[in-house]
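Work Package 4 report. The design task specified in the project plan requires that, given a folded chain encoded as structure tokens, an amino acid be chosen for each position. We show below one input record used in the internal validation round.
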């Protein structure tokens, strides 16, 4: 009787419990929140602010370089493409 009960529990766990657990977490993953419009707007604002700060830093480096010919910027300047990332849709697709 004990062996039968052990086998029944093992088969139940294998064929009922495990698929239920997998499907449960797949459903939770698909229901996970994506970026809201407010989040996207915040990311766009942060991107614009980062570009403005980069431009300010480059201006300051040019002023210092004009006053001090031995000055070298600490990092090479990065050129950004003119494409704007705000036009892209980065929403998760299922």
């Amino acid at each position: 009787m004990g062996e039968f009960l052990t086998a029944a529990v093992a088969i139940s766990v294998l064929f009922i419990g495990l698929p239920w657990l997998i499907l449960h977490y797949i459903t939770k993953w698909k229901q996970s929140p994506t970026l809201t419009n407010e989040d996207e707007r915040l990311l766009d604002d942060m991107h614009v602010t980062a570009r403005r700060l980069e431009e300010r830093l480059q201006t300051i480096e040019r002023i210092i370089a004009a006053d001090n010919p031995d000055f070298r910027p600490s990092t090479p300047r990065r050129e950004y493409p003119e494409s704007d990332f705000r036009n892209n849709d980065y929403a998760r697709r299922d």
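The mean pLDDT is 83. Validation will be extended to a larger panel in the next phase.
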